[in-house]
Amino acid sequence: MKKPILLLLLLLTLTASQAQEAKPVYNASKFGIRSDGVTMNTRSIQFAIDWIAEQGGGTLRFWVGRYLTGSIHLKSNVTIELMEGAVLVGSTNPLDYDRLVATNDHALIMAEGVENIKLLGIYNSGGCIEGQGRELGNNCTDLVHKGLMKDKLSNDRVGEGFRPRLLLFRECKNVEVDNVTFRDAANWVCMYDQCENVKVNNVRVQSTAFWNNDGIDIVDCDGFLLTNSYINASDDAICLKSHSAKKLCQNVEVRNCTARSSASGIKFGTMGAGGFKNVKIINNVVYDTYRSAITIQSVDGGICENILVDSLHALNVGNAIYLNIGARRDKQSFMDGITIKNLYAEVAATKPDAGYEYEGPVEDLPRNISPCGIIGLKDSKIKNVTLENIEIVFPGGGDPHYAHVGLDELDKVPEMPKAYPEFSQHMELPAWGFFVRHVDGLTMRNIKLTALKKDYRTAIVMDNVNNHNIIELIVDEPNGEGKERIFERINP
Are residues 49 and 72 in contact, defined by beta-carbon separation less than 8 angstroms? Predict the structure, then answer.
């Protein structure tokens, strides 16, 4: 009899301990927060967050309704719960948004230097953060026209620094965001900057109402897990960045996500001051995307090391793979240890994001459809790239009379170390499958390249590529019998 009694006492002790650790839940209505979509709730929501933090932490719960607000700041040990049908609605007045101390960026949901914070949607689709981005962005422009803000107004639109994001967490630890929809930002939608131990799961980003709408930006974070999410953005969908030369964006995993973009699907950069290390991109889908399905860049003097892309399925994209080293800041950049395997992609013959509200710009023309690019610099080669189990379907049909670069004139392909890096920047390329330049260490195993129409170009062109090994290559091109599959120029 003693053992059951001891087990019962242990269970009661654990239950009591858990009850003591449980944080209280407070309904938003307790603080006079209104759900009518008209009342400005900024001060009452902030009071509630501050008060809960002062009590040692807890949950602020929003039930069904529309809660209009300007910037609110999360505090340590505070959770915001959005029940199904609850919507936090951002003000359309740019003057209702606060700025971070460290970076001067502004957003609707903000946190700086805090820990143990959560933003959770409860039941089914959970709640929503709505930015009213088109109206907010246009009102920012209106303030410039009135002389109340100063900006150069490129294309009569204010720059990124004047348009608020939806979510901005800076230097926070132990962050959880789950089952929340983010809709229509005026700028980047969700930005996590120099945060540690972040888990983002089952979020939905639907933000195509304004330009520069990156879906999720992971900036110099250490320990970031993004899973089971859907991102539809008018700029890069999932974007890793490194803004600080003293930091790294590292120990990041993106798994089981679906992305669509009028720029790139999954992208490292463009900013890479410190760099990227230990990143896994596993079992994701990219579709209807204007630029590359996967872009990995090191162009600002940082490193890019130990990157794994596994099981990426890309449909109707402008490009499948683009790896690039640049030197925009007159600093040598590094890329070493990139593995891409189990990838299937279909490259579009026409503009893959045609018909979306904000399409990617028509640029870098004239040119034929670009191949995949693995392009380093002569003095800063990309090192140790492995491509395995890759199948890519290209439209083919390259026209030599449209814009021709022959295999004997590869020097016509510009280096462009200081250019804004995009797969199309090199204009016409002499390959339809892969163009590889300035690489040391390349393994290609079980690769199938299909051109739907005959192309005058060679499937794979390698220019100054050392230590390469190509195993099990299949090139399927109409009337391509007897045509060389690979052309190589050594040490130009």
Answer: yes
Rg of the Cα atoms in the chain: 25
**Any idea where the domains of the chain sit in the sequence?**
23-166, 214-492
423-469: pLDDT as tens digits: 999 888 999 999 999 999 999 999 999 999 999 999 999 999 999 99
pLDDT tens digit sequence for 163-180: 999 999 999 999 999 999
* 370 neighbors 394 (Cβ within 8 angstroms): no
Give tens-digit pLDDT for 337-372.
999 999 999 999 999 999 998 888 887 666 789 999
Of the candidates 440, 416, 333, which has an alpha carbon nearest to the alpha carbon of residue 380?
333
Structure tokens at 246: 């003293």
Nearest-angstrom CA–CA distance, 259 and 167: 19
d(CA 368, CA 340): 25
CATH topology assigned to domain 23-166: Pectate Lyase C-like (2.160.20)
Alpha helices in 71-173, H assignment, sequence order:
133-145
Distance set, CA 140 to CA 160, 162, 164, 328 (Å)? 11, 7, 9, 30
- Please name the residue that has the structure tokens 């936090």: 88
492: cis peptide before it, omega within 30°? no
Contact status, residue 93 vs residue 139, Cβ threshold 8 Å: yes
